[in-house]
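Lab notebook, page 48
Experiment: co-folding of the full assembly
Goal: obtain a model of how the components sit together before planning crosslinking
Operator: M.T.
Materials (sequences as entered):
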Amino acid sequence: MDGIKDKVAIVGMGCTKFGELWNKGVEDLIVEAAFEAFEDANIESKDIQAAWIGTVFSGLSAITLAPLGLQYIPMTRVENMCATGSEALRAASYAVAAGACDIALALGVEKLKDAGVTGLKGPSVVGDNSESISGISPGYSAPAAFAYLGTRYFHDHNIAFDEGKKLLAEIAVKNHYNGSLNPRAHFNNRVTLEQVVNAPIVAWPLGLYDCCGVSDGAAAAVIMRSDMAKGFRADPIYIKSLSICVGARQGAMRQDYDFVHIEENVRAAQMAYDDAGVKNPREEISVAEIHDCFTVHEMIVYEDLQFCNRGMASEEIKAGTFKLKGELPVNTDGGLKCFGHPIGASGLRMMYEVYKQLQEKAGPRQVMNPRLGLTHNLGGSAGTGIASCFVVGNERG
Amino acid sequence: MVGITSLGAYIPIYRLNRDEIAKIWGTKSLGGEKAVAGYDEDSLTMAVAAANNSMKREMAEIDGLFFATTTAPYKEKQSAAVIASAINLNRRCYTSDLCNSLRTGTLAIRSAIDTVNSGSAKNILVIASDCRIGAAQGKFEQILGDGAAALIIGSKDPIAIIEGMHSVFSTFTDTWRSQLDSFIRFAENRYANDVGYKPIMQDVISDIMKKYKLTPKDFSKIVFDGVAIKEHHRIAKKLGFEESQIIKPLSRDVGHTGAASSILMLIRCLEEASPGDRVLFASYGDGSDAFIFRITDQIKKIKKRTFRESLSKKIPIDYGKYLRWRNLVTEEMSTLPERPALSLPRRWRERRSILALYGYKCKQCGTPQLSPVGQTLRVCAVCQARDNFEEYKFSDKKGTIFTYSIDSLQATRNPPGLNGIVDFDGGGRLICEVTDCEPDRIHVGMPVEMTFRMMFQSNGINNYFWKAKPIRKDL
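Observation: model returned without errors.
Model output:
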């Protein structure tokens, strides 16, 4: 097996502002994200030879891309729950690597607020279609699905409720601080530890600020063969690995799934590190965008992705390891916490930040000497997930 | 000899103090408390609970199920079939709903006795269950309670044999509901008691004694339906029974439970009875069915006191919860998304796992497992062996809460939503709702058992499934 490392590069990216975009339809977000990416890549829309659109609720089939006016090219809609945007990037990258096309577009978009409901609509990301149609699923919310992790993590690590709330709150405070430096984020407000700890409980132990919001947004990437990339820009970002790992409801059926780590995260990350040749993620990853749908999940991801040792997340949080100025900055753009989670877009929005960071264009959020970046998503329901872990770098080789 | 071979009472855990009701309306409290079926219970789910409370080993031999109620969930669709599925009876079982009269419970007993005597079936599970509602502010709102009572009628080692039966019908109209009524309508109280209840009960009880040449002295206990305890007493005394023989109506601690009422009193009586006791038992409603039972030695094998256990477990609720759970108040619309419609073919295909909570045990690695989404398991979750399973019953397994979440966003009529990941003793895991549990009781390691409840209604169909409830120590 050859692997994807250094075969393809991202030469352009776009990202809309995220938020409750009442005045924008899916067509507006698609066009804005795509055209920013085309300009950034120094191409025109007619140069795109194939396109992948990732969306969970905002369009069935690739006809969703019709507003872009791409003329009679191969286009496909992909969906993989919260890893949908990443999946679009992955599909486009493998197509280019396989020689099916030279220049491809990956776009993720979601207009969650068009559903007109509170929270996520329909069967929701908490379960696939089948759960609701059989009617036996308890119908708990997405926060509740992740609260299972919080309850068990506190229990296993003997963390008292107050102490645990503070740990999780540090993550929310960090991400809001980062988001305050990012005009594209939905939320630009900073929050204090007290505000977060005292916020109303949504799903015990998670409070209002432990949960990301529901919002609209889009992001796009132009991918081409690595050997062509420098003809379009001086600083292409090379893809080192594109790993996903999907569970089979093990956590919902087997007693050995412990709910203090997520196996899908662990394996996706290890595969990504292996493909990218990363031996020590803590030292080698310069910046990471990980799936902070809920603060408790970010905490567990630190351990799952080997950013710290198992059981040590609380120590690292207290030490500020993952803050903007810390050893391994995580969610430098504000994360899902400040962008919300327009599901199809999030994976690509994460890549947008990593892309800009590696090109040293992140302004007040810039990390020092970036070399390798990582994006991570996790979708699913309690006990079963779709994890994606991608590693990219600003050097070839 | 045909008789009662098993029994099981079920009283829902929730209690509404009558003083609360009286305070809201500025009326007089009848005192005591009424049992209120939970938001996820109805006459059908209570019947399953009562059936599961009766001795379990009898289940395999049941070939008939009679469900008696005046509050059936459907006007057209048999509840007995659903109950039979939930307790995993063979589909060749003879199922029947008996409705529309407060006497249906005892009519079902009588039919069961006749059926077994005729040889048409061997063991019939009779379950009476009711969830009647009195209109707001009125006396029936206080009087009524919810509950279910199960008896098995058969001829193998009965704990009580039938020595006699006697029935009378009557068109006397004291309480009624038309097809369209939600609430009890009723005649004036003294008329109802003096012209209907008292004479009918006096007649049927003295008639059955005459028929079998017995007098009050020949009985250890008399059990007959009633509401007002004083009236009930007077009738018994007038017939010649002593204080110590009279089993009181459950008005004070439970309320009047409709078709289940007299049978719950009977179960209370039988669970404290001794071999050789003779019991006179009668219902009331559109006439009466009376029976004479004689307790046998087999009564000693009854270890569980299902009536007492049910009665002793309580969670107090307030009037608001009661209004909400019985759908008596129009609530503001929610902006939470609606649940999609159920797939009938899917629910039919998966009826075994959905209604009876049957899963699979892998024959290769021995792991019990259950699909969390209602799908047939083809590949083992542990060893990936394909199509190598045997059936595995989860409904009677105990478990513990591995982790849980308390969800304030969940659509539930008893917020906050409680959900648990249940690890079953012997293997297997299920993510499900937790019910009959106060939010500050749930904890990692909490022991639970499974209970049959209603999830939600969709297109007029009740979506039943199983939830976990805490195992409470018997007092």
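Interpretation: Chain A touches chain B through 50 residues (CB under 8 Å).
Next step: discuss with group before ordering constructs.
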